[in-house]
Every structure is written in structure tokens, then in C-alpha cells.
Amino acid sequence: MARVVVDVMLKPEILDPQGQAVQRALPRLGFEGISDVRQGKRFELEVEGPVDEAALARIREMAETFLANTVIEDFNVKVES
Amino acid sequence: MTARIGVVTFPGTLDDHDSQRAVRVAGAEAVPLWHRDKDLKQVDAVVLPGGFSYGDYLRAGAISRFSPVMETIIEQARAGMPVLGICNGFQVLCEAHLLPGAMLRNTALHFVCRDQRLRVENAATAWTADYTAGQEISIPLKNIDGRYTADEHTLDELEAEGRVAFRYATGGPAAGGYGNPNGSLRDIAGITNAAGNVVGLMPHPEHAVEPLVGTGGTDGLGFFTSVLKKLVSA
What we know:
The complex is a heterodimer of chains A (81) and B (234). Chain A is α+β, with helices and mostly antiparallel strands and 81 residues long. Chain A is 33% helix and 31% strand. Chain A has 2 helices and 3 strands, in the order βαβαβ. Chain B has a single domain, classed as Rossmann fold. In chain B, helix 1 crosses helix 5. The two termini of chain B are 13 Å apart. In chain B, strands 2-1-3-4-11-10-9-6-7 form a 9-stranded mixed beta sheet, with helices on both faces. Chain B has a two-stranded antiparallel ribbon with strand order 5-8. The interface between A and B is medium-sized, with 12 and 19 residues.
């Protein structure tokens, strides 16, 4: 079994008020020096069988149609060793 | 024979019964539709009601959009059947790409629940013909993922084609229901597709159809009487 990770993030131009709220809370908690926070989603997929180019193509299709809404989000697929 | 208007229930839908009631108050027959059933029971129009289908997991509307009933609704909507998406229903329509754009978390991160003043911008759609362009109405609003977002090109296109159906009315006191409640771009509260048969909005017309309950007004009834007139005259 191999693990494939899909990270989904709001596009850079999309306002992320949740990330901003986290960033504003940091100095109050004593964590200085963080100028920006953006919050996203991480999906860990346990893949049955080999993670070949065909399997990755299917996962990219899955990310594009379902895991991410490409109107507002970007995604990144990577194989975890 | 009166028109048959279907109201879809997904797991987590909240406003299906109010929507059915609004359909009946307008004089049409309300037909409950189940999310796992592809059969639309020969309805003439469909309402996708508000709520939190699938708990808003993944993204609001993202999982319901792939339900069996939506397969048929997407097909029929493209063929011209009137479809109204309210709140979560609007989110489902965007996720299904029947309407452009997407809904994001409100900029203030608060769940907003209040009577909201809207300006009807397009009174030529299947669901707005009983209003006049520029008319202000007051109906309830209740959401946390209500910030309408699309890229600049899409927004310009929507404006140029008159497809912004409703805007949050500004210029009055917040206590009077004025102002943009969620940071929606260009104060957009609802939009229509190019053909005018698919309309989605965040506020809730189905909660404002009888004087006794809701806002105390009936400003939302026009959605349902508009589509009924269109169907009966068709």
C-alpha cells in the first residue's frame, strides 16, 4: 500500500479570513514573526496496487473534480514514500 | 391541473418542508424528491432547499452535487427546466457548475441570521418575473458560508449579461437589514444562468411567504408565484 497526499489550498488571490484569524491570534500566544497564515486541506489516500502514472492520473482527476473546487482552490498531488 | 414543483431532500437538508409549504402557498403542488432517487416524478420545476447537506463536509454542496437526483436535475436544467437553489441549494448549483463561482466562509467568520434587504436586479428570470427590476425586498438570511466569489472576468461577464439577479441592498442601517452581510464580491446575493431558468441565492424566500410567520412579510412569495405563472402559461 502506498500513500498519496493531495494538498488543497485556496488560490493566492482568494481572501482567507480563517487563516487571518489564526495569524492574528499568534502574537497574543507569544508566537512572533509570522506575517501571514493560509489554511488548507490535506487528504491522505491509501492506494491499493502500484502508484504508477495511470493511478496518479486518476488521482489528479479525482482532485480536480471532487477534492478541490478549482474555481477557488489549487491542489498538489505527491506520493509519500 | 396545477404545476408540480419538486423539493429535494439531501441528508442534512433543513428547509425542505418550508420550501414545500411555500410552493403550496403559491398554489402549486409540492413533490418531495429524495437525493438517492434519479426519478424526478415528472415535476415541472425543482427547488434545492437550504440546510447543511452532508454536514457541509469537504465544501458546502460538494458531496450532494454528485447525488443521483442531481444527475437528472443537471440534465433537465440544461434542457430548460426551472431550478431554484436557496442557500445550500445555491452552493450545490455552483458546485455542479450550473452557475459560475463559489461560496466561501463569511469574511467576519460569523454565522449571520437576520432579515436581509435585497435589490432585485433581474426581474426576467423564471423565478423573479413577479418582481420589478430595482425593487427592494426583505427576506431572512442565515449562513456562514455565504461569501460569493468568482474571478474578475466572470464577475464582469455576469454584470454585462444582467445575470446578477439579486444584490444585498446597501445605503441603509444594518439594523434595517441593509449592507453586505458576508463579504460577497460586488454585493452579489444571487445569480442566474444565461437562459434565466437556473437561479441561486443565499437568502431564503421560502421563509417569507405568509404574514403570520418569518419576517411578517410575504416578500419571498414572488419566487414561487413567478415560476408557477411561467409553468401554467407554458
